[in-house]
Task: inverse folding
């Protein structure tokens, strides 16, 4: 089945799956059509400025108060929430992991979440967590919403179908999906076992970064973001709803599906984006630009220009800079960088960083090209070169990213990662030319 979408980022949408289900000229009529219930879902305080005020009106078969019964605690031991301190004994350092293995036993999206890092404080609504997910079965009659933050999902192997209360989104590797805080959904793997990455954003919701002197075009353009049209199911059978709330999980049993929104309008909704739509800009004469030039989405903090989270990608692009070391330079940074690779090869790490893998370079810990990458770039003929068939990304935050016990004790941890810089040579010999032999 092909699902339909509405284009635009942050638009005020309206959609109905039955004719006349969406009220016109008012939000809450005395008797909505089809006997539906009117309900508002707010993603911001009521008094937020107009440009930041986010809410949608949902017209559903049952109000959400009927989608919960008595909650009881649930256990998802590998999904952690910040602050998650002193979880292990491993010292600070630069770290890298091989891809997570898909388990043999039936594992759905929720039980397949494995937290790698946490940062900030979910209760203070700042920071993030970086997860990987592995799954081989769908959630069937289980549903979920996250009260702690929105979820940015980056598939790496296999496609996913997110059946949300506001419509259906399908994504494949090379696309992303953002699920707002509080929106109910379930996940179905489309074509076999799946693996990917998730950024759980506790802070201000993701928005498009300012372009500054770039102007009105390029980077991520609003028209390329897609929001689903209304879709509902009227299913009268036992279902469960799992909720993540202040770092803990709870489950309630209900006798019907909570995915019963027949129509809705507003600007608070899930959306997808094809990363191939990103229009990169870069240096066209000399020097390597800051990676912020590749920002797709940003979660602002209270400090101008210092993000709670930046979602940055490294897509196919041309390198043309003259007299320039073209890979990323060696660097120490106030931001903390969680990096993943969807497919291909990352130009600064030719060896060891494989699709599905992860690297972590925390604040003020030095990083940069490995020895072989440096040698190659230092002696390369500087003709125009296209970096093709590659897609890497970064979850970057102003907070230190604290490793979980799962990450610290993972058999996928590359304990020799630090050795990738071992063969960098001293080239200083007191002469202006240096020693490039």
Result:
């Amino acid at each position: 089945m092909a699902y339909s979408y509405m284009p635009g980022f942050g638009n005020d949408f309206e959609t109905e799956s039955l004719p006349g289900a969406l009220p016109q000229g008012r939000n809450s009529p005395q008797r909505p059509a089809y006997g539906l219930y009117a309900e508002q879902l707010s993603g911001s305080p009521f008094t937020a400025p107009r440009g930041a005020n986010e809410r949608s009106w949902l017209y559903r078969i049952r109000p959400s108060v009927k989608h919960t019964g008595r909650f009881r605690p649930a256990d998802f031991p590998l999904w952690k929430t910040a602050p998650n301190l002193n979880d292990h004994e491993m010292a600070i350092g630069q770290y890298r992991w091989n891809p997570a293995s898909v388990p043999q036993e039936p594992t759905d999206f929720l039980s397949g979440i494995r937290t790698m890092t946490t940062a900030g404080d979910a209760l203070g609504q700042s920071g993030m967590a970086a997860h990987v997910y592995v799954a081989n079965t769908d959630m069937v009659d289980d549903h979920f919403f996250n009260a702690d933050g929105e979820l940015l999902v980056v598939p790496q192997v296999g496609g996913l179908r997110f059946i949300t209360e506001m419509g259906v989104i399908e994504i494949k590797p090379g696309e992303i999906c953002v699920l707002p805080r509080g929106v109910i959904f379930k996940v179905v793997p489309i074509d076999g076992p799946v693996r990917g990455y998730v950024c759980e954003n506790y802070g201000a919701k993701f928005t498009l970064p300012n372009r500054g002197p770039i102007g009105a075009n390029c980077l991520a353009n609003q028209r390329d973001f897609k929001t689903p049209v209304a879709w509902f199911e009227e299913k009268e059978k036992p279902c469960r709803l799992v909720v993540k709330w202040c770092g803990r999980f709870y489950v309630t049993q209900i006798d019907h599906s909570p995915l019963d929104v027949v129509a809705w309008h507003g600007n608070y909704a899930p959306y997808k984006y094809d990363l191939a739509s990103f229009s990169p800009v870069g240096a066209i004469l000399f020097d390597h630009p800051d990676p912020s030039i590749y920002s797709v989405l940003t979660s602002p903090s209270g400090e101008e220009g210092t993000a709670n989270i930046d979602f940055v990608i490294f897509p196919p692009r041309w390198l043309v800079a003259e007299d320039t070391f073209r890979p990323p330079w060696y660097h120490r940074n106030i931001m903390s960088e969680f990096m993943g690779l969807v497919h291909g090869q990352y130009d600064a790490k030719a060896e060891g960083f494989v699709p599905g893998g992860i690297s972590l370079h925390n604040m003020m810990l030095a990083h940069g090209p490995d020895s072989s990458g440096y040698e190659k770039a230092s002696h390369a003929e500087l003709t125009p070169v296209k970096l093709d068939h590659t897609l890497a990304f970064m979850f970057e935050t102003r907070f230190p990213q604290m490793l979980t016990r799962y990450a610290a004790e993972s058999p996928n941890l590359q304990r020799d990662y630090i050795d990738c810089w071992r063969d960098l040579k001293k080239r200083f010999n007191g002469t202006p030319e240096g020693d490039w032999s």
Observations:
- The first helix runs from residue 371 to 379.
- The longest strand covers residues 126-135.
- The CA atoms of residues 127 and 335 lie 12 Å apart.
